[in-house]
TrEMBL record:
It comes from Ferrovibrio xuzhouensis. This is Cupredoxin domain-containing protein. The keyword Metal-binding applies. InterPro entries: Cu-binding_ET, Cupredoxin, EfeO_Cupredoxin. Keywords: Copper, Metal-binding, Signal. Residues 24-91 form the EfeO-type cupredoxin-like domain. Residues 1-28 form the signal peptide. The lineage of its organism: Bacteria, Pseudomonadati, Pseudomonadota, Alphaproteobacteria, Rhodospirillales.
């Protein structure tokens, strides 16, 4: 895990640098649910255990989580940082694709360094500028069951059933965050 002396400024600089340089169109929902099974949404009442995650401005605590095939875990994720963060369960390839989508959301003003522009999520994104909408499978929004955006000081939950052992990570795919160390791993027992 990389830690900067002034995490907020370092991450904010990375976010802004990436956001201004990210010009590639995003494929909404690209990689979500494709490839190896990453599991399924679970039911909180049937969770085997609850794991509390603290999100800082360039780290997760804990950074590694042991899971078992078939286990349902309730994740309670608290953003203790100063910036908007994401907790997203996926493979490295899924995160790479989702990072493109997140860059577009920042570029279009849907996400800022500290929050979400909730009015933007209600827009008809098919009429946005020069984007190639023929590749977008649905309107751009952030509502997948394996992912939550958490504003500073807020808490979110994901309940997830791990259906099979696979190379899974939890990560923040907001531009610059993954690269600054906001990625953890699931270790299957």
């Amino acid at each position: 895990m990389v830690r900067f002396p002034n995490r907020s400024q370092a991450v904010l600089a990375a976010v802004m640098a990436f956001a201004t340089s990210a010009a590639a169109p995003a494929l909404a929902d690209a990689g979500h649910g494709k490839g190896p099974s990453i599991g399924t949404p679970g039911v909180a009442a049937k969770a085997n255990r609850t794991i509390e995650i603290t999100v800082g401005d360039n780290f997760y605590e804990p950074a590694k989580i042991a899971v078992k095939k078939g286990e349902t875990i309730r994740f309670v994720i608290r953003n203790g940082g100063e910036l908007l963060h994401e907790f997203n369960i996926g493979t490295p390839a899924m995160h790479a694709e989702h990072q493109k989508e997140m860059a577009m959301m920042v570029e279009q003003g849907m996400l800022t360094s500290t929050g979400m522009n909730h009015d933007m999520s209600k827009m008809d994104h098919s009429k946005m500028g020069d984007m190639d909408h023929s590749k977008m499978s649905m309107p751009m929004k952030h509502d997948d069951p394996n992912s939550k955006l958490i504003e500073p000081g807020k808490t979110a939950e994901i309940v997830w059933t791990f259906s099979q052992a696979s190379e899974l990570q939890f990560a923040c795919n907001i531009p610059g965050h993954y690269e600054s160390g906001m990625v953890g791993e699931f270790k299957f027992n």
